[in-house]
């Protein structure tokens, strides 16, 4: 019994009932317009007092409602918002924007007609049934003090009929609630099909999500490469400075200067990346680092941490395109960061940058005996390098070869992006 009461009068049922009442209220202007058509057509003077003419006016008004929804594209988002909040339909299954295509407008017109049709019927019942039910429930008491049956048939004045009147009154209220539940459930079931996005809108939404995901992945790579490299470099530089604090003050000063330079540059890069994430904020002013602008500085800061780096550059960084120069810088930065993490300052890292067969080739090597590139939970840096190379149409390979950990990246000089 409790489940039945919750089904008929629970919070969800009441909200859907309210949604139907709103549909009935929206239908009233169209019913009035229908009366202006039905009255002269049937030569009726008082349409309002004739139930059959009222229903006919209602039937005439519904097509006008469908036309209205076609003329006003905002009908769909307004109706979708009402369905989302009052009918308990998942918002992801409903369209957010106005109906623009013929298919979307047709489905919106069908939904609007159903909403106003069902709503008009339930709203009319909600106005008529409760007073009638109250009269039936109170009729046995009324007849005790008066013989007036309030205009009801005289047969209802019989004793056994009067005894059943309260039951009939309660049954009418339950029937009204059941009709509202069924109508609300049908509208909730049809809403995703009629108010949901079209195939074109789903495709556009998927493309927008893919573009947003690509931006987020790029920002994640930028943060990982810049901040991760900075933390690794600063950690190694601070450790080396602590060890040589008493024996080599000049090296300590260089290490501290490198820490200051690294953190300042990283804060600028972090501000630039976060500026993209702040809606309405202007992007940060720090430019993205490139081989042409900061390769020497990157090598200097890396060496200040104690890592020995031998670099051979057979390509003119100034001749590279901005995109290629920027991505190549990040690849070199991540390769050196991996060496800092896994090889420490006890080995020599060999960096080579050259051009061959229309490709920019980047290689980084360090002895495998000391390095431990496959640390638990790692691998994000190498994955980021592979992603950058793939986006540029190039390739990236990393692994152990003849006792050496080697990273080899080939990027086409003519980038596809």
From TrEMBL:
It comes from the Bacteria. Residues 216-281 form the Signal transduction histidine kinase subgroup 3 dimerisation and phosphoacceptor domain. One of its GO terms (molecular function) is phosphorelay sensor kinase activity. The chain crosses the membrane at residues 20-39, 51-74, 109-142, 162-188. Keywords: ATP-binding, Kinase, Membrane, Nucleotide-binding, Phosphoprotein, Transferase, Transmembrane, Transmembrane helix, Two-component regulatory system. The keyword Nucleotide-binding applies. InterPro entries: HATPase_C_sf, Sensor_HK_TwoCompSys, Sig_transdc_His_kin_sub3_dim/P. It is an enzyme of class 2 (transferase). It catalyses: ATP + protein L-histidine = ADP + protein N-phospho-L-histidine. GO terms for cellular component: membrane. PANTHER family: NITRATE/NITRITE SENSOR PROTEIN NARX-RELATED, NITRATE_NITRITE SENSOR PROTEIN NARQ. This is histidine kinase. It comes from Streptomyces cupreus.
């Amino acid at each position: 019994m409790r489940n039945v009461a919750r089904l008929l009068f629970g919070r969800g049922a009441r909200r859907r009932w309210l949604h139907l009442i709103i549909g009935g209220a929206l239908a009233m202007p169209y019913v009035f317009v229908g009366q202006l058509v039905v009255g002269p057509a049937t030569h009726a003077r008082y349409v309002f007092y004739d139930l059959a003419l009222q229903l006919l006016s209602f039937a005439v008004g519904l097509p006008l409602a469908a036309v209205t929804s076609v003329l006003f594209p905002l009908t769909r988002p307004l109706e979708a918002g009402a369905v989302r909040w009052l009918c308990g339909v998942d918002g992801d299954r409903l369209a957010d924007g106005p109906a623009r295509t013929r298919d979307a407008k047709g489905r919106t017109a069908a939904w609007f007609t159903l909403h106003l049709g069902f709503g008009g019927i339930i709203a009319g019942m909600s106005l008529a049934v409760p007073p009638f039910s109250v009269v039936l429930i109170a009729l046995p008491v009324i007849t005790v003090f008066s013989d007036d049956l309030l205009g009801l048939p005289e047969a209802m004045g019989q004793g056994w009929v009067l005894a059943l009147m309260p039951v009939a009154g309660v049954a009418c209220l339950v029937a009204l609630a059941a009709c509202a539940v069924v109508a609300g459930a049908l509208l909730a079931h049809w809403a995703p099909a009629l108010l949901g996005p079209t195939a074109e809108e789903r495709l556009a939404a998927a493309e927008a999500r893919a573009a947003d995901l690509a931006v987020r992945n790029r920002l994640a790579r930028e943060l990982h490469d810049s901040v991760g490299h900075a933390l690794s470099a600063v950690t190694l530089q601070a450790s080396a400075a602590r060890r040589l604090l008493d024996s080599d003050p000049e090296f300590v000063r260089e290490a501290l200067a490198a820490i200051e330079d690294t953190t300042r540059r990283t804060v600028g890069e972090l501000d630039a990346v976060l500026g993209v994430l702040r809606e309405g904020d202007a992007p940060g002013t720090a430019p993205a680092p490139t081989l042409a602008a900061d390769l020497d500085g990157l090598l200097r800061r890396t060496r200040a941490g104690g890592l020995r780096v031998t670099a051979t550059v057979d390509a003119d960084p100034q001749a590279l395109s901005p995109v290629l120069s920027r991505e190549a810088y990040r690849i070199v930065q991540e390769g050196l960061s991996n060496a800092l993490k896994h090889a420490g300052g006890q080995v020599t890292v060999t960096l080579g940058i050259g051009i061959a067969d229309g490709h920019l080739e980047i290689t980084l090597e360090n002895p495998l005996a000391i390095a431990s590139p496959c640390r638990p939970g790692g691998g994000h840096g190498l994955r980021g390098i592979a992603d950058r190379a793939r986006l540029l149409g190039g390739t990236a390979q990393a692994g152990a070869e003849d006792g050496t950990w080697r990273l080899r990246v080939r990027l086409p000089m003519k980038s596809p992006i």
